[in-house]
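Deliverable D4.2, example record:
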Amino acid sequence: MRYFILVLISVLAMSCAYDLGYRSKNLPGGHKVIHIPMFSNETMSVGLETYFTNELKRQFYRSKVAKVSDQAPVKIIGKIRRIYIDQTEARASREDFENLPANTVLTTSYNMTIDVKVQMLRRSDQKVIWQSEFTDFLPYSGAQLKLEGINSSNTIYNQSAINNNIQKLAAIIMAEAFNRLTENF
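Output generated by the structure prediction step:
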C-alpha cells in the first residue's frame, strides 16, 4: 500500500510540474497570421538576407504558432546590420616553419559576427509592436596551407566556409529571435 501511495504522489507531482513549467507560445497581441518579407541587408555581403528570412519562416512553419501569409495584419521585418570577420593570427618562428620567411603571419581561423534587428509591425499603421536586436558570432577555420612549396590558400574553400558559417548563424540567431518573439504573450 505504501508503494502504491508513493507512486501515486510521484505521478501527481510530475504532472503538476509539467503543467506549471509548460507555457504555450504566442505572438504579441495574440496574432495567428504573419507576413515575413525578405530581410533587408545593410552589409556589403551579398545573399545574407535569404538565409535569415528563410530560417525565421522555418521556425514558424515548424512551431505552428502562426501561419505565414502575405495577407496578414502584422509583419515581421528584419535588417542585417553588420557582418564582421575578425582574423585570428598565428605568428610563426623559423623553427616552426623552416620554409616560411621570418615574421610570417598565418591566419588559421576567423570569428564571424553578425548583427540583426527584428521588428514586428502592425501593417495598418506601421506601429512597432515588438523589436529586438541580436548579435552572435561563430569561429571557422581558414584554408590550410601545405608547407611543401607553400601552396596558395583556396578561395573557393574560404567562400564556402563563410556561407556555411552564415547559415549556422542564421539558424542560431533566428531561433533566438523566434523564442524572444513568442515568449510571455
